[in-house]
Fold:
Amino acid sequence: MKNKTLAAWLTFVGGPFGLHRFYLFGWANRLAWLLPIPTVLGLYGVHRARTMGLDDPLSWVLIPMLGFTIAGCAINALVYGLMNTDKWNERFNPGSAADAPAGQTNWLTIGALVVSLLLGTTVLMASMAFSFQHFFEYQVDEAKKLSQPGLVKKSAD
Structure:
């Protein structure tokens, strides 16, 4: 029996590493094995930003991977937590009664929903802000280089 509350918490807490997919779909699930890749790349981007500074262009690409993966898992936790009991048991507990306790919502499920909504939207907005800010700063710097070629040479000397 797959428990909806446990699935919602696993999706939020361990989702970026695919734990919820292993729980719900088993070890053969491809997405469960692929989810850690953007998570680890994003963590590497955070490490690069901490060691090399925020001017590192590679970290601009890698850090949002982590944020979007966390936000996607938070959205998935919302989908699981909001799924009605009949649909949950039909999909994840076939052969059980439509109102089996494993698919019912309780206060721990609501807690997973609240935390997922709060932190998922925060991480999503922070990832978008980080990405857009660094992208536009890079564009402004490149435009300055094109419009004032003598200024770049003087600063390089």
Observations:
- The chain has a mean pLDDT of 92.
- The two ends are 69 Å apart (CA to CA).
- The chain is about 80% helix and 0% strand.
